[in-house]
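Researcher: I'm comparing several assemblies side by side, and this is the next one on my list. It has 685 residues spread over two chains. Same procedure as the others: predict the full complex and return the structure.
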Amino acid sequence: MKELFLELKQAIIDGDEDIVGELSQKVIDESINPVDAVQEGLIKGIEVVGELWKAGEVFLPDVMMSAEAMKVGLGLLEPEIAKLGMSEGESKGKIVLGTVEGDIHDIGKNITGAMFTAAGYKVFDIGTDIKAEDFVLKAQEVGADIIGASALLTTTMSAQKQIIDYLIEHNLKDQFKVFIGGGPTSQAYADEIGADGWAESADEAVALADRMLAK
Amino acid sequence: MLPKYNVLTEEQVLIIHNESIKILEEIGMEFEYEPALKVFRAQGLKVEGNRVHFTREFIEGKIKLAPAEFTLHARNPEHDLVCGGENIIYMPGYGAPFIQLADGTRRKSTMQDYENIVKLAGASKNLHMTGGTVAEPQDIPDEIRHLKMIYSSIKNSDKCFMGSAEGRERAQDSIEMAGLLFGGKDVIKEKPVLISLINSLTPLKYDERMLGALMAYAEAGQAVVIASLVMAGSTGPAALVGTLALQNAEVLAGIALAQSINPGTPVVYGSTSALSDMRTGSLSIGSPETALFISASAQIARFYGVPSRSGGALNDSKIVDAQAGYESMMTLMAASVTGINFVLHTAGILQYFMAISYEKFMMDDEMAGMLLHYLKGFNFDEDGLAYDAIAKVGPGGHFLTQKHTRRNHKKEFRTPQLSDRAAFDAWSKEKLDTNQRAHKQWQEVLANYVPPQLDENIDKKLLEFIAQRS
């Protein structure tokens, strides 16, 4: 069993989603404790990747492929955990991520998602061209700590404000931290629209979340 | 003019062409705009959902319809530009949301910045047109931004300018305003006056906004740059040739659409392909790889017989420093010596397109002047050979008191506008670096600039149009 977890961990480090899929299926088939497989296998692996990235020893494709592999593993093991009525254990936090309404650029969002995954957060990526309401509904559904909204165009930045307006309107502002990001955004803009956080790059966003959620 | 140099063999260009055809035939591209799909269906192409599968015959046939060169008309005919052939057109940066200031701070760009940059480009001896979104005026509501920008471009200079690519409606507004300026839409249909920047959404897509604008301009006979920005490593493969094949497929499909709508539409083959930094994922444009993409694009466009467009003074630096200078010179020189015809982002860009800097603008204007001089190459007439002067001076002696010297240096040497050639002691009095000198210079240029007079009647009509559309 220990051996299997080590293999899972290594497959995450290698960013090999096929092997992670096979091994996760094996966990289910052989009725091995899925919570242990997540904690001892998947999460241990992604932690290593996060450390290596911080140390400058791996590059972005390494992190993103590990995050993808993580998604495959969790996709198989989480339903099993729920079926058995077990608890997955605590993640560092939950973040709902998307690109705002009217904007279909997603590279920045995807990188941010991978960085949060590598840092031990649970990421719910809801895609591009997402309405303010849908950000909030998803955040409520999963009990998110953070709503992360990306915009690349000066003409779609206003949709980031709409999310905050929607939260205020529905008396939900204090339930979630709203993070914004994307090329034309800035700390000044975040302050102006009342966002809780802004970061220029994905790793700065993770560091900011770490600080904010630790409080 | 110096001959343009090639970075690919003929066989390599053909390989890239064939790879692009394979991408277009077998993978196809998505067009998120029903009117565009309708055009492709009418051309007999296989369309499944938004996905269009092209054929070699269709693409190669349509490319042949695009003119090898065309004239872009300016309010002042002295500033008419021929796009294509041996010509090179320099213009300011495009689309930056921020202004980087000389003191190292950064702020949102405004309408005032837009106007200032149009004026600086209007005053420049080296920039041939004023460009398009020279600064994103974030203090103007999005719905009327394009109207204000076009008006400012018309009012503050009589050089050629660009139209809005923000969807069909704004393209139509641009065409209406150009029509008012040039005496009617029929007039400009025969003589293109606008050129606009249509970008694909890499990989292998075009969105509704850009397609709407492309179709409006093609219908009105206005020129379009069809450009692709592949970020190698993220929105494209981590391979230079594969990136070129992908870029080429996207541009060919866009050109084919324009030619299907209106055969003979003036188009420019555009490339801004660059890298994704593999540590952070961010766009990186001041790189040797970008210079290779630029150079190859000039050559690929020549292969198709259409004018080419690339970026100009590109860099990833945050401020006007040595990195900004050396990266910018590499890409601007690559564009200039390999035969790019339409050099967007020649002046002002910092921070991988995120910021415009006035000081960088002046530095790039100087570089543009240096390169225009370089491109002129050598003079082989009697004055150029200067045998008589050499004979007169003979062994020893000097040329400083020769009539030939006094006369000819003004023809053959370029006097710098911004660079400092003073001796150390003279320079030491003020110790101004490039950033500081440029800071003084742009303010002087702006203060001394007098915009060319605009006909009062036309001015009134333009303002009425804006009022009615606002």
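Model: For your comparison table: Residues 240-261 of chain B form the longest helix (22 residues).
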